[in-house]
# Entry
Amino acid sequence: MLEKLDSIGNQALKEISAVNALDSIEDIRIRILGKKGALSEVLKGLGALAPEERPKMGAAANEWKRKIEESLAARKAELEQARLDAELQEQRIDPTLPSRLLYRGALHPITQATRRIIQVFGRLGFDVVTGPEVETEFLNFDAVNIPKDHPARDMQDTFFMGPGVVLRTHTSAVQMRALRSKAWPVRILCPGAVYRCDNDATHSPMFHQIEGLWVDRGVKMSDLKGVLEFFAREIFGADTKIRFRPSYFPFVEPGAEVDVSCFQCSGGSPSCRVCKGSGWLEILGAGMVHPKLFELAGYDPSQVTGFAFGLGVERVAMLLHRIPDLRLMFQGDVRFLNQF
Ligand code: DAH
# Structure
């Protein structure tokens, strides 16, 4: 009988250590330790034994029962732990992954272009100065030598806020404020919004300009050219060339329109979509500050000279990012804005 018990016990321990499924643990328990289990069956033969043999067999059976139960519990714990590990492995989360629901904000292309331009001129010593968007008609027009009968003063071009008060039509309006309030040398950059009654694919009633002004003893046209050449190379690429075309603006003499060589085709392709085959892109107006402005500001025009330029920020941003329609800039469409 002892041999039988040992054989059942050893067999059970072997099975338990080999079992791989949690369900099978219970099967084994029932098969060995259950009411009709193998161990119970053996113990049924206890009555047939000599009385002095019985306690020994009983003790041996209990010892096996204890061992088997212990082994079942241990294996069960092992299998449960393994199942938990597998689940954790499968459902692993990486807390360092960026969330999919949140969008990262970005600066508007106009803000980006403005900052880049300011940074480039900043390296040449230009300080940023701002003026009000609601401006006097005097500073917007008279002070920069735009006469009373000039067509720019027409209601069709200018938003009048009241008698003698306008929404500034250009950042040149800041020039006289700067000239008056600062002792020369004046080397400033005036970024900001300007307003005109205009609305189509290339014109918006509100847009942005950056005015530059450098006034000092002995500032020459060649300085203007050097400064603009540096700017063009920094913004549009090292191979960029610039050219001056004679033009007229009341606040400068001589005045010029300034083009940069097309960064897309480098002036080489008649079918270029950016420059329309001309090889050049017009980006700003510039010139030598008109002596009348110096007189008005209380400077002696024989002592100081200076240059001024005005550029459109949207124009630069549209060229840099190949944006086909100006109106996209102001519609707040996130599909457009997300691209920057
Ligand atoms: N104020 C001009 C405009 O709005 C741009 C401009 C042209 C500014 C020539 C200047 C300049 O300072 O010299 O179209």
